[in-house]
Automatic annotation (TrEMBL):
CDD domains cross-referenced by the UniProt entry: NAD_bind_Glutamyl_tRNA_reduct
Source organism: Streptomyces tendae
Protein name (record): Glutamyl-tRNA reductase
Binding site for substrate: 49-52, 109, 114-116, 120
Protein family membership: Belongs to the glutamyl-tRNA reductase family.
Domain text: Possesses an unusual extended V-shaped dimeric structure with each monomer consisting of three distinct domains arranged along a curved 'spinal' alpha-helix. The N-terminal catalytic domain specifically recognizes the glutamate moiety of the substrate. The second domain is the NADPH-binding domain, and the third C-terminal domain is responsible for dimerization.
Length: 571
């Protein structure tokens, strides 16, 4: 077994890189075809989700395999190899198995314990099978990973450690309110009809929304999803399908929007979202709150000191100088231009400053040199910068959201600028990644890790044992040929041998051969299951002078039998 995985995920790469490296369904198929066509790889499978892209392959050379798989990922993702390489991780043999099993259990997910990954993994295996890229190793690996994932969810409380990405996203939209209470009675718009969109729609229905509208580029898929949502006597949600051209109008009606399409460009621009908010009954004027806050900060900054001369020629507004600061300190003269500062310096050189300082209770005496130095600074930069802490400026209150957006697509469907619009709350993959970083881990995670470790050991043992099986079969085939040859030779020497005695002799010889081979073949399978056990197959081939082509033909025959069984499907 020479299993290799090269990939990147939310743990190794920023969302911006994952977004650019995302693969469409067609791109995944082409990547699979190029992988199995590459020299180091004989099998391939792609696991591509909203927060990971991984390429699995059975390779005969490690370093050549890493180089080839990395290059293929870069070529098909459109991200240059030099830029992509720092974010790639590599796992080999047992570590690769451990990684995939951990992914299947939700241990490597953005939201620990989420179960959506199992469906995505099943789709990846189906795509590899359809393109004939998956052979015995990857078929066994992915099918076992699915079983391990199901075992983890059924035997532990890993589900309590986290939810699906959809549920987690809705929790972020609800801002601490229970999702069922927050969603009750709302109108939902779901854009897309794939697996994630279907999960989103079903989750919203369970949460108690009053209406679900499904928009998709393919009307048939949207209609199928609507039928699924309305099936069953216990469902009273209103559901309908609309074309994508109806999305702008539906934005004026929806309270919550979930978008997860395979589009390469934006599905909802900030302008579309703004128009949707303005078009609602009692809609509000849409402005950029960040820009308003910036402008208010500039306009609300503390005014510079008055530059009209005060009494006795002092240009400083003495009552405005905070107690404890000298009238010659920088706090008093901050903001003055050079000419006014020179006037203040001339005033400070007079005797009046001592009287005024004493009257104000400030400590330092007049120092015209300090004023002169400040004047020189003002001449160079135009003004003395404000050194006092600016007065706090109240940001304009943000209206309560009237439109909630959940963007689960990669690359993103919703313009990130929509988060600045009043009345809009946007949660996307990037914000989910930040929110999940501090999510608590459940105690059940340790139990799942133990399950993964046990299953990795069992899978490795099974693969090593399976590796020696063709050699054992070839050995027994050779022994059977020897028995048949000796019986034929005996018949030639004893032509009068009757059928009864011939059968008895034949059975006796076969029992002798079986007994001689039984202990070695059973023991060699046991030894082969241990780490490094592949060498026992080589020893058998050498000791019994087995033809390598005979062993290879047994392997091909077994793979053909397994493939025919997969094509027939379950009985």
């Amino acid at each position: 077994m020479s299993l290799l995985v090269v990939g990147l995920s939310h743990r190794s790469a920023p969302v911006s890189v994952l977004e650019r490296a995302s693969l469409s369904a067609d791109a995944q198929t082409k990547l699979l075809q190029d992988t199995v066509a590459a020299e180091p790889a004989s099998e391939g499978a792609v696991l591509a989700t909203c927060n990971r892209i991984e390429l699995y392959a059975d390779v005969d050379k490690f370093h050549a395999g890493v180089a080839e798989l990395s290059t293929l990922l870069a070529q098909h993702s459109g991200v240059g190899l030099e830029e992509l390489t720092p974010y790639l991780y590599v796992h080999y043999e047992d570590r690769a198995v451990h990684h995939l099993f951990s992914v299947a259990c939700g241990l490597d997910s953005m939201v620990v314990g989420e179960g959506q990954i199992l469906g995505q993994m099943k789709d990846s295996l189906a795509r590899a099978q359809e393109t004939h890229a998956a052979g015995r190793l990857l078929n066994d690996l992915f099918q076992q990973a699915l079983r391990v994932g199901k075992r983890a969810h059924s035997e532990t409380g890993i589900d309590r450690a986290g939810q699906s990405l959809v549920t987690f996203g809705l929790e972020q939209l609800a801002l601490g309110t229970p999702v069922e209470a927050w969603a009750r009675g709302k109108k939902a718009l779901v854009i897309g009809a794939g697996s994630m969109s279907s999960l989103s729609a079903a989750t919203l229905v369970r949460a108690g929304v009053a209406e679900v509208v499904v928009a998709n580029r393919t009307p048939d898929r949207a209609e199928r999803l609507v039928r699924t949502l309305t099936e069953g006597d216990d469902t009273d949600v209103a559901a309908r399908a609309v074309p994508m051209t109806s999305v702008p109008f539906e934005l004026t009606r929806a309270d919550v929007v979930v978008s997860c399409t395979g589009a390469t460009g934006l599905v909802l621009t900030a302008e579309m979202v703004a128009a949707g908010v303005e078009g609602r009954a009692g809609g509000m004027p849409v402005v950029d709150l960040d820009a308003v806050a910036d402008e208010d900060t500039r306009e609300g900054a503390p005014a510079t000191q008055p530059q009209t001369p005060a009494e006795d020629g002092c240009p400083v507004d003495l009552p405005a100088v905070r107690p404890g600061f000298s009238v010659m300190g920088e706090a008093a003269v901050a903001g003055m231009d050079a000419a006014t500062l020179e006037q203040h310096g001339a005033w400070a050189a007079g005797s009046a400053v001592d009287r005024r300082d004493a009257a104000r209770g400030t400590g330092p005496e007049a120092d015209a040199e300090v004023i002169g130095a400040l004047a020189a600074t003002a001449s160079a930069i135009g003004r003395i910068p404000e050194r006092r802490r600016p007065e706090p400026v109240d940001a304009p209150p943000r209206p309560e959201p009237v439109l909630f957006l959940l963007d689960l697509a990669m690359p993103r469907d919703v313009d990130a600028a929509a988060h600045r619009l009043p009345g809009v709350r946007l949660v996307d993959i990037e914000s989910l990644a930040e929110a999940s970083a501090d999510a608590p881990m459940a105690a059940d995670v340790d139990q799942v890790r133990r399950i993964v470790s046990d299953e990795v050991a069992a899978f490795g043992a099974a693969q090593r044992a399976a590796h020696i099986t063709p050699t054992v079969v070839a050995l027994r085939t050779m022994a059977a040929d020897v028995v048949a040859g000796e019986i034929a030779r005996l018949e030639g020497r004893l032509p009068g041998l009757d059928d009864k005695h011939r059968a008895e002799i034949t059975q006796t010889v076969r029992r002798v051969v079986d007994k001689l081979l039984h202990a070695p073949t059973v023991r060699v399978k046991q030894l082969a299951a241990e780490p490094g056990g592949a060498g026992y197959a080589d020893a058998l081939r050498t000791l019994f002078d087995l033809d390598p082509e005979t062993v290879a033909s047994v392997s091909r025959a077994e793979e053909s039998t397994e493939k025919n069984a997969e094509n027939r499907g379950p009985g």
